[in-house]
Design goal:
heterodimer, A: alpha+beta, Ribosomal Protein S5, domain 2, 5-stranded mixed sheet, globular, B: alpha+beta, 6-stranded mixed sheet, 5 helices, 12 strands
Amino acid sequence: MGGYGDVKLLRDDGKRLDGRTVDEMRPVSIEAGVLPAADGSAMVTHGLNVAVAAVYGPMEAHPRKIQRQDRAVIDVRYNMAPFSTGDRIRPGFNRRSREISKVTAEALESVVLVERYPRSKIRVEIEILAAEAGTRCVGITAAAVALADAGIPMRDMIVGVASGKIEDTVVLDLDKAEDNYGQADLPVGILPNTGEIAFLQMDGDLSIEEFNLAMEYNFKAASEIHVLMVDALKRRYERGDN
Amino acid sequence: MVELVPTLLRQELERLAADNQRIDGRGQWDSRNVSLEVDCLYNAEGSAKVVWGDTIIYAGVKFEIRTPWPDRPTQGSLMCGAELRPVAHRKYEPGPPSPQSIELGRVVDRGIRESGCIDMEKLCIVPGEKVWGVMIDIHVLSDGGNIFDAAGLAAIAALRTAVVPAERFDVGEDHRLLVNGSPIMASFTRAGGRFVYDPSEEEELGGDERIHITLGDEGHLHSLQKGLRGVFTPSEFAEILAVAEQKCTELREMVAEKEGN
């Protein structure tokens, strides 16, 4: 987390700088089946974040050393477009994107019925086109919708959400200023039907009580986003072009 | 990934060409539907999304302040790069930039640069010390054929709607980037033995060489590129050049219309 203290993030009326209450998320919209070349795809806008996910496969797993005899491997690439941030990002993988790709793959492998496809690979490509804090969560949500759009069986959806702490107050869904100047960030991937957690990271400073409240907000947000995910998939099949 | 070129697809393209037909029902010089959206991404100083048939491409413009080259102390710089990321098609794999993505970026770059639409002198902030570097990044999200024309269109539309973020760098007020003209690309692929405009994915897969022509506002040529294996005659080129003139004019009007909004 960035600096503390100096930057005011809560207004006198207790609302946040963009007018949200502490447990209010930014507006979210989801569309499934947005990329014609992919087997499954989705676009999620979450506040000013824009994430696109594409799924290819199941396909032959190569190089062969990544093959697993008893299940499919999920090969995730999380990538930020060069123009997605304030300063241009040099194209290519960096340590941050490698780590996010790894933990995202492990989260998705926890919900996809990977044992149905031994020795194969499912490619998940997450592209962040615009970043305004919380891109890894938006990417996970997009990836889950894209996997469902590709017809890949899953035991549940997975929803990426985050809560955090600003000015000693727990808030849902940090925006850019809150992420930069806040005190904690707790991104999680929630299985909305089972209530399980498949993705968890955190940085900053939270008491146990604050953690519990942040998790409560995250579960609330996950069920709201889940409704939008299901709705996007339904619209996709009503449209019926693929 | 090595692409298989099915003999049956090649035969089908030849059969169709003999009847002056195309695989998706278009005429020889017909385009697929093109839609253009500008200023669509937060954080990019200029942005555009092009949906061209099944092809989807974003372009984003970013600025940086850099030291000018010693031999050109009053000139800024322009760079246009393209990424054919694995998101765009199952045939694209992760790794360092492929020759195809480098070719795409460079052909678009040449068309914009050589048209002179960006006056490098106007990108100077303090001679010998500070100049603007303009960077256009082309991000291919879905390759449904003819990514060159879609990339060229997205790049010039993003550039023409870009705002120089001078306030953020503390060097004056934000202002629209000055762009004099709209270089536009038109691409042709030999499919079934004859050239067609705006090749689809199947026509590229079962086709031969391709030719990319970038024309400026005055109808002058600014970049040409012949790609892949094959040869063509001067009279074939004259024919597609005439088609390119018309197509580029139509697309230039589309860019102008979006800018007005």
